[in-house]
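Two proteins follow. First one:
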Amino acid sequence: MKKQVIEYAGVPVGIVIPDEDRLKFIAVKYHVHDLDEQRFGSPDEVRLAIHDLMTRRHPKPVHA
């Protein structure tokens, strides 16, 4: 596998590059910088981590 662009909500936010037997995420947008240089098993795992990160930062309001 070569490098692959990772998008979130249609916006490129980083790339993954092969690193030993994993994929290293390189963030190119500030809002995903917390995940920079972390290693993942697949591009989908990276996307899930980004989604979880963004959900924690911007939780949806609860309507009563």
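Second one, unrelated to the first:
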Amino acid sequence: MPDQVPDGEVAGGEVGADVHEPGSGRSRLARAMTRPSRSQTIVAVLLALVGFAAVTQIRTTEEDSTYSGLRQQDLIDALNGLAGTTQRTQAEIDRLRSEREDLLSESTRREAALERTQREVDSLNVLAGLVPVTGPGVRVTITEETGVVKVSTFLDVIQELRSVGAEAIQVNGKVRLIASTSFEQGTGGLLIDGRLVESPYVVDAIGDASTLAGALVFSLGPARQVRLDGGTLSVDELTSLDIDTTRRAADPDEAEPDP
């Protein structure tokens, strides 16, 4: 009969020491946890993904359950309510956009009106002689030689300049001429707005130089009348001319701004 193998022994030798070593299973588990193999890592990742998917599905189901118990008519009413809210929101957006465009348009119109008003104020200030001005023009020199230049002759010179577009006129750098300026014959010269101006009379006028000059020297123009009075008239065309004399605005005695 073959020999019986005693307990704890195997044929051909003894069982390895790890079989009989107390706690050998726990040791293998500890090694697996601290030093997992590649297959164990893959299994762990797959389990984590499955768990995440399950949690996401549960949450989605819970969120979607808000409308799960509603009837078809209830769902239609809910959709209609959302559509109405959307329409009201769009209408409010359109209203605000329209108001914005109106404000921009109003601002543009206001700026244009202000610019136009400012141009008118500047033009009136020039015509009223309230501000210094500069620009192209002519310098007219009238010299008394054998006679006295009459007031009517001098006034013809001024009127001719105005009629062809002189925008600003001064005499001898002392008097700024405006629409209400007065002229009188004085002793030793002319009284312009009460101020004595003596010969030679130097008239500076701003405007188109060639037009202003042509208005004075044509055959029957003011230059001829100056010669008949015993004087001479010469015209210099200038590309830039400064008129520095100004007048103070008169305060009205009776008129008041209408509120």
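SUMMARY FIELD: Confidence is low (pLDDT under 50) at residues 1-23. Helices lie at 17-20, 24-34, 38-64, 72-127, 151-163, 209-217, 222-228.
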